[in-house]
Amino acid sequence: MSQSSTSQIEHLIALMAKLPGLGPRSARRVVLHLIRKRGQLLTPLAAALTDVANSARECLNCGNVGTDDICAICGDERRKNGEICVVEDVSDLWAMERAGQFKGRYHVLGGTLSALDAVGPEDLRIPRLIDRVATEEVQEVILALNTTIDGQTTAHYIADQLGDCVTITSLAQGVPIGGELDYLDDGTIGAALKARKPF
After folding, report:
1. What angle do helix axes 149-162 and 126-135 make, rounded to 10 degrees?
2. What is the pLDDT of residue 185?
3. Gap between the Cα atoms of 61 and 44, Å rounded
4. Strands 105-108 and 65-66, how do they pair?
5. Strand partners, 66
6. Which residues contact 96 (CB under 8 A, 6 or more apart)?
7. Over the stretch 80-107, which tens digit does the pLDDT of each residue have?
8. Which of 50, 117, 150, 169 is most enclosed, with most CB atoms within 10 A?
9. C-alpha 138 chain-centroid distance
10. What percent of the chain is predicted at pLDDT more than 70?
């Protein structure tokens, strides 16, 4: 194998190692597997990556990822029910969609407020959310943000900005289905106690 081809493979391994969940060793295994399955995996994968690189874009309305200016969820009139679920990232939107329970529309912030990282409201899609609430006949905003300090700070900021013009709710927190108390952290148990309901 020539030095040139080796450096190309090493370059591919280095790029793969930058992906979440893949370190240098895992990336090396993935690349070797792709090379062995060149016709079945590597060539179609390269074509798909090129297609996505050329066509992927963020929805102008909600921030979801798709191949059109307006994503399929925002374009679906059946989902125009007055509910907007606010999430931090597209991966959170996809997780909500996997559950198959929410039938409204979404708003992807693109992160959370963070004084340490100098991320303010204008760095996120908070102004766009406020505009949507004013123009889309929204009755309820569901804050589905992570229960981190930054996530909760962001949720409180959004609630303050929206004020009383719309109903604001958040996801329930507490004991997960199938969870055992002995394995839960103190914060989860505390949240479950505060959110208790009649049996």
Report:
1. 40
2. 82
3. 31
4. unpaired
5. 57
6. 85, 87, 102, 106, 144
7. 999 999 999 999 999 999 988 999 999 9
8. 150
9. 21
10. 95
Going by pLDDT thresholds of 50, 70 and 90, the confidence category of residue 2 is low
Residues 86 and 107 sit within 8 Å (Cβ to Cβ)? yes
SS3 135: helix
C-alpha count within 13 angstroms, C-beta hemisphere, residue 106: 28
Radius of gyration of the chain (CA): 21
Does residue 114 register a pLDDT over 60? yes
Q: Closest by alpha carbon to 170, among 160, 155, 185?
A: 155
Q: Is the pLDDT of residue 3 over 80?
A: no
Q: Distance (Å, rounded) from C-alpha 106 to C-alpha 87?
A: 7
Residues 6+ apart with CB under 8 A from 14: 27
Q: Would you state the pLDDT for residue 182? A: 82
Inter-residue contact 145 to 120 (CB < 8 Å): no
d(CA 143, CA 152): 9
Task: Note whether 155 and 142 are within 8 A (CB).
Answer: no
Q: Which helix (H) or strand (E) holds 169?
A: strand 167-170
Please report how many Cα atoms fall inside a 13 Å half-sphere around the Cα of residue 85, on the Cβ side: 23
Question: How many residues does the structure list for the chain?
Answer: 199
